[in-house]
Amino acid sequence: MKLQKLLSYLHSLFSHEGENPEITSIENDNRKVKDGSLFVCIKGYTVDGHDFAQSAVENGAAAVIAERELDLPVPVIVVRDSSRAMAVLADAFYGHPTQKLRLIGITGTNGKTTTSHLLEKIFEDRHEKTGLIGTMYTKIADKVYETKNTTPDSVTLQKAFHEMTEASVSTAIMEVSSHALELGRVHGCDYDIAVFTNLTQDHLDFHKTMDRYKQAKSLFFSQLGNAYIENRPKYAVLNADDEATEDFIKATAATVVTYGIDNEADIRAKDLKIDANGTSFILTAGKEERYIQLKLIGKFSVYNVLSAIAASLCAGNDIDDTIKSIEKIKGVAGRFELVTANQAFPVIVDYAHTPDSLENVLKTVAEFAEKKIFVIVGCGGDRDKTKRPIMAEIACNLATDPIFTSDNPRSEDAAQILRDMEAGVAGKEYLVIEDRRQAIIHAVSKAEEGDVILIAGKGHETYQLVGDEVLHFDDREEAEKAIRSRFGTV
Ligand SMILES: CC(=O)N[C@H]1[C@@H](OP(=O)(O)OP(=O)(O)OC[C@H]2O[C@@H](n3ccc(=O)[nH]c3=O)[C@H](O)[C@@H]2O)O[C@H](CO)[C@@H](O)[C@@H]1O[C@H](C)C(=O)N[C@@H](C)C(=O)N[C@H](CCC(=O)O)C(=O)O
Ligand SMILES: Nc1ncnc2c1ncn2[C@@H]1O[C@H](COP(=O)(O)OP(=O)(O)OP(=O)(O)O)[C@@H](O)[C@H]1O
Fold this sequence. Notes:
InterPro entries: Mur-like_cat_sf, Mur_ligase_C, Mur_ligase_C_dom_sf, Mur_ligase_cen, Mur_ligase_N, MurE/MurF_N, UDP-N-AcMur-Glu-dNH2Pim_ligase
Function: Catalyzes the addition of meso-diaminopimelic acid to the nucleotide precursor UDP-N-acetylmuramoyl-L-alanyl-D-glutamate (UMAG) in the biosynthesis of bacterial cell-wall peptidoglycan.
Binding site for ATP: 108-114
Domain Mur ligase C-terminal: 334-459
Distance between the termini: 62 Å
Number of domains: 3
Pfam families: Mur_ligase, Mur_ligase_C, Mur_ligase_M
Bound molecules: ligand UAG, adenosine-5'-triphosphate
CATH architecture of the largest domain: 3-Layer(aba) Sandwich
């Protein structure tokens, strides 16, 4: 696409009347620039992309988008916010791919990954080609790619959508993080269905206050409907049991569909029964009523299922087909995943790394634990420090045997993170075992029939981030090794 054509998607103030080179790609990393690239300078949290503009031109950049004038031998277009400009340009460069897809976005503190995988299963069972973008990976039809962010930067995102349209994907499901909303990564995405799971404390290192965190989430619903295409209704699927929903209803022009358990809702679950093997409930959806038997465990799983059912119905799917798909699902990797190696007590690996998710998972465990509850829990380094004492307190209140350990200390001192956790539990009973492997071995060596071990925080992750190192570490592997070493292999 020619530079001037591309710039026409920005405000006319940014039109450029000089050279008009053919743009071959949009890049925000000088190391990826090739002949004809449009290089976008982003002021990051670590470095300033403007410092790499000269090198980008040497690597072949034909033009540069920047937030200030730069002395370069190629056209430099100055904009107020280069991240947002990049999102608009990427959407245009790739031919507005999200207008050709049914796009379902899921935002919220917890439950995004689980809900997106439930929806993927529902659409796959309808023999649709699907795309998925989220924490675990990006999937385009049958191809799976590793991802660095839950919601990638706008160029990576629009490129993935473009590839989806090329691969005849009809429905794309994506997790939308609050960081992505705040930083404009999803600008230009035309969502058909926007799902909200819940809002509880997390990411205060980034958003600073819960109010600003809520405002970031609110952007998702206020922007929905702006890109309205004729005959293409937009839906906001909202959690009736979460306080933030009231604000999101006010913010959106889309059709609102609510789901919930405790409060009145369009899609509602009642008579929940939860045990170690699954969860059952009665679903009401308008005038329809169905009995549902899930393999998934816990009240929080019912919320994820309700939001997936609501989104599926908004997409026009049949209620019974939707339920059939949901009932078959055994679980999502690292989310309440059972490690079974011939031991007499359940060992559960769960990605709970926020106060709310830890509380939910421990309350679910308490529903079927007959004796002790061991919980192995840590808090990440270089992330929201205010979570640390709170998560420690939750662990001590809801488990009989809390063990505090390391969970991705990154550049921080692991012992200091543990001290921050301990500040929340003065006078309570707990153990500190900094080495995560030893913490798991300890719990497995002590547990007996009737007890439950919950290993929280890593879920599907297969690494421990220490300093700049990425060390292989998988809670499921470690638990299995510890069990086999105690009970032998059968
Ligand atoms: C705080 C934040 O969001 N950081 C994101 C940001 O990194 P940054 O600001 O440090 O970037 P930077 O290194 O300063 O670089 C600035 C610019 O210079 C460019 N550059 C840099 C170096 C170089 O040699 N050449 C060059 O051109 C970079 O490409 C970039 O355009 O831009 C990067 C590229 O897009 C992201 O990968 C990175 O996410 C990091 C990994 C991250 O941890 N982000 C978290 C906070 C995040 O976004 N999390 C949410 C999920 C949260 C959840 O729900 O759990 C997510 O969506 O992932
Ligand atoms: N609806 C929910 N409400 C509260 N907690 C939940 C819910 N769904 C899942 N959880 C808990 O949160 C953990 C993370 O779930 P999931 O990966 O689906 O959330 P997420 O929003 O994608 O998280 P992240 O953004 O950190 O990747 C689960 O392992 C479980 O402990």
